[in-house]
Amino acid sequence: MATITKDTIVGDILDIAPETAPAFIDIGMHCLGCPASRNETVEQACLVHDQPVEELVEKLNAIIVANRK
């Protein structure tokens, strides 16, 4: 799987790595099934929820690596 970046679409991440959902919920993104939120980039989601994008990107990649072992 490719590395998640700030430009990766949230819905794409959830489709290939549903185990990342709690990381989005932790930043206040509770409507993960909403079409609008699924089409945002990670950076857009962080801006809307006033969260540092690099921290979420690191967390998402760590979750994916841990679950692929």
Automatic annotation (TrEMBL):
Q: Where is the signal peptide?
A: none
Q: Which domain of life is it from?
A: Bacteria
Q: Where is the DUF1858 domain?
A: 4-57
List, alphabetically, the Gene3D superfamilies matched.
SP0561-like
- What PANTHER family does the record point to? BSL7085 PROTEIN, DUF1858 DOMAIN-CONTAINING PROTEIN
| NCBIfam families from the UniProt entry | prismane_assoc (TIGR03980)
Name this protein carries in UniProt:
DUF1858 domain-containing protein
